[in-house]
């Protein structure tokens, strides 16, 4: 499974969890089932273990670190509060922050680019620019911290 598709389904799962107050397993199940009927998604195997593991890892990691992620995001949301963000933008920012801060298997610039594409796909006309601005500030600081180490 492509990472982009895993990210798309992870964002949708996180959104389901927040909107419908369902648990992680239920949210992933709903989203994967919908993806299987969507020709664009190209998710072909119901029991695609690797796909489910990728989605689950992204959702679990983001959700279990949500409080720390939200605190970190607040530093970059100048003039914004988390509850003022659209739910889609909020989940995209959370997922991207999780990948940049808690994982090291994808370069941060790739994570930011993927988040921008997700925001353009799922969000409003301004979502891509907004996500780019927030994550752009974050990536600069993270790179500075890493270069000092």
From TrEMBL:
Gene Ontology process terms (BP): DNA-templated transcription termination; transcription antitermination
MF terms (GO), sorted A to Z: RNA binding
Gene3D superfamilies reported in the protein's UniProt record: NusB-like
Highest rank taxon of the organism: Bacteria
Keywords for the protein's UniProt record, in alphabetical order: RNA-binding, Transcription, Transcription antitermination, Transcription regulation
InterPro entries: NusB-like_sf, NusB_fam, NusB_RsmB_TIM44
Any one Gene Ontology cellular component term annotated for this protein: cytosol
Residue span(s) of domain NusB/RsmB/TIM44: 6-140
SUPFAM superfamilies: NusB-like
Annotated function: Involved in transcription antitermination. Required for transcription of ribosomal RNA (rRNA) genes. Binds specifically to the boxA antiterminator sequence of the ribosomal RNA (rrn) operons.
Similarity remark: Belongs to the NusB family.
Protein known as: Transcription antitermination protein NusB
């Amino acid at each position: 499974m492509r990472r982009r598709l895993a990210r798309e389904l992870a964002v949708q799962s996180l959104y389901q969890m927040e909107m419908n107050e369902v648990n992680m397993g239920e949210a992933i199940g709903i989203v994967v089932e919908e993806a299987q009927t969507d020709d664009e998604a190209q998710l072909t195997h119901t029991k695609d273990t690797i796909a489910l593991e990728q989605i689950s890892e992204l959702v679990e990691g983001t959700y279990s670190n949500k409080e720390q992620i939200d605190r970190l995001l607040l530093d970059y949301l100048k003039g914004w509060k988390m509850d003022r963000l659209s739910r889609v933008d909020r989940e995209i920012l959370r997922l991207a922050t999780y990948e940049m801060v808690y994982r090291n298997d994808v370069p941060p610039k790739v994570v930011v680019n993927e988040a921008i594409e997700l925001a353009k796909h799922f969000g409003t006309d301004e979502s891509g620019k907004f996500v780019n601005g927030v994550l752009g500030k974050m990536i600069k600081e993270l790179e500075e911290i890493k270069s000092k180490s």
